[in-house]
Amino acid sequence: MDEKKHQSKPSDKILTALFLVLVFSLTAASILTPVRTYSENENRYLAQMPDFSLEALFDGEFTTEYETFITDQFVMRDSWIGLKTLTERALLKQDINGVYFGKDGYLIEKYDDSDIDDETADRNAQRLADFINEYSAILGADRVHAMLVPTAQEILEDKLPLFAEGYDQEAYIEQVEALIPGGNLVDVSDALMEHASEYIFYRTDHHWTTLGAYYAYREWALASGLTPYEQEDYNIEVVSDEFYGTLQSKVNISVDPDEITLYRTDASYSVIYNLDGTVHDTLYNMDALDIKDKYTVFLGGNNALVEIGTEVDNGRKLLIIKDSFAHCFAPFAADHFEETYMVDFRYFNMPISDFIEEYGITDILVLYNVINFVEDNNTLAFTR
User: Is the separation of the CB atoms in 338 and 316 below 8 Å?
Assistant: First the structure.
């Protein structure tokens, strides 16, 4: 037998050595790099080192959390995400990290049936219906509404890759509508579909644009017996053309940025965040235009409670129970009420029934995008 066949070539040894150096270098760099709390690029908090205990180790909890911690804190994480995306795109993959690469430069968040827990979805539908039906009886049928907004995956079907499939959001809206017989569910699907060729969803972010929110506002205003403002009633201004949203962060490759547009009037406002006592005279946090998450220009982003006061004198007070889709919607709604309150159940601890009574709420709108709502684990707050 020829022993030369079993001898390693110098080039093999060099490649092995380089690989080991790379692995150990990246590992050492990850260990030595300070732990990050927040990723501005991904707009989320990163996993932290889990607490160790023998119980957590043996039941697998520590191992799972530690793996997430290592993944989140890996050195040059953002660059590796971009490299992975480019590699998979070269293999003609149409969806990466939960994001479809759609037509005309659209990145569209992907949701399949397998991503949705039916039990949670059904539970949330019933809790919402019970809440809407209860307060319709108390405040009046024309004063209480829900709006579940279909995401871009549902509305922009023509932008999706060939054979793309997703969770049937319209079927869920119909399920909820059947539980609210009073017609208090404002279905904005038709209005959004009618304007689907317009810029109603961002290309790099999962939110709708201000224009999309405006079309939904019109539907809600009419359902509420209000006269909606026309577009010409606003000073419409593009305040940024450099917005890269959450979906671009998930794939981290070069794409064209989005524009952020504000619809402003000459009205005066007083805005208070989280009962901190500081009164702001604007609905817009213009400083947000200098950071990555420019969508927080709308009412400061996610807060437990936002109070908006206006010069309107009609005795009506609106409560919006919401996710972040409401942030660019609320400025339209606020112009019809003396006071508008925005509550986010993820951070809000006061029983909602107590809040409604204490603040003299006369009108209610529950506003979520469909996917956020079916996945929400905070809907127990509707029952308190």
Answer: yes
CA 87 centroid distance within chain: 27
Residue pair 247/204 in contact by the 8 Å Cβ criterion: yes
pLDDT at 9 over 90: no
Q: 70 and 142: one domain?
A: no
Beta-sheet pairing, 317-322 with 363-369: parallel
Domain that holds residue 322: 107-383
Domain identity same for 164 and 298? yes
pTM: 0.80
Alpha-carbon distances of 24 from 27, 35, 77, 78, 136, rounded to whole Å: 5, 18, 16, 19, 63
* Antiparallel, parallel or unpaired: β 38-39 and 44-45: antiparallel
Same structural domain, 372 and 315: yes
Per-residue pLDDT tens over the stretch 22-62: 455 545 555 556 766 756 555 656 677 777 777 776 777 76
Amino acid at 24: F
Number of domains in the chain: 2
